[in-house]
Each structure stands twice: as C-alpha cells, then as structure tokens.
Amino acid sequence: MNLFSLSVDEVIKALNNPVKTCFDALKNSKIYICTIRGKLYSVVVRQDVVITLYRTDETKLYSRIRSGRWNCE
C-alpha cells in the first residue's frame, strides 16, 4: 500500500463497497475490483487475507473476464 500511498483504512473502506467481485479459480482467491481515489484497483484476497493490491483498468479487467480467468458477479 505504500507503493500507491494508500492507507489501510482506504483499502478496507473500498473492500466494503467493491465495484465488482470476482473469483479466480486458478489461484483460488477472490478479486475485489475497487475504486480508490478515482482509480481502479484489484485487491486479491485468499482466506480473508489480502494477498496483493494492484492498479488495473477496464481493458485488463474485461480481458480476464472474457478469457474465463475470472468469474465475476
């Protein structure tokens, strides 16, 4: 989170109101697509632990959905 200058509180607040929730069967994890400070982030959670947080965009998001990698609600 230091890389993006985000606070833990900002990430937790975003996780409580995700834009989209997906499941990655390959990595057995949930992906929460969140907007933080007007930018899209993917937050990867496995067994209720945040594994990684990275910037994303609509192109990457829909590419993973179309390829079947992510199953989203």
Point out poorly predicted stretches: none
Q: What is the averaged pLDDT score?
A: 89
**Quantity of strands, as a count:** 5
Amino- and carboxy-terminal Cα gap = 26 Å
| SSE sequence, one letter per element | HEEEEHE
Cross-sheet strand order for the largest sheet: 4-3-2-1-5
Number of H- or I-type helical stretches: 2
Percentage of residues in strands:
35-45%
Largest sheet: 5 strands, antiparallel
Radius of gyration: 12 Å
Q: What sort of overall outline do the alpha carbons produce when their principal axes are compared?
A: globular
Can you lay out the helices and strands and say which pair or pack?
Elements: H1 8-15, E1 20-24, E2 29-36, E3 39-46, E4 49-55, H2 58-66, E5 70-72
Antiparallel strand pairs: 1-2, 1-5, 2-3, 3-4
List descriptors.
alpha+beta, five-stranded antiparallel beta sheet, 73 residues
Structure described in brief:
The protein is of the alpha+beta class and 73 residues long. The protein has helices spanning 8-15, 58-66; strands at 20-24, 29-36, 39-46, 49-55, 70-72. It has a five-stranded antiparallel sheet with strand order 4-3-2-1-5, sandwiched between helices.
Could you explain how this protein is built, in words?
With 73 residues, the chain is of the alpha+beta class. The chain has one domain. Helix content is 23%, strand content 42%. The protein contains 2 helices and 5 strands, in the order αββββαβ. It has helices spanning 8-15, 58-66, and strands at 20-24, 29-36, 39-46, 49-55, 70-72. The chain has a 5-stranded antiparallel β-sheet, sandwiched between helices. Strand 3 and strand 4 (49-55) form a beta hairpin. The protein is globular and about 30 Å long. The relative contact order is 0.22. The model has no long low-confidence stretch (mean pLDDT 89).
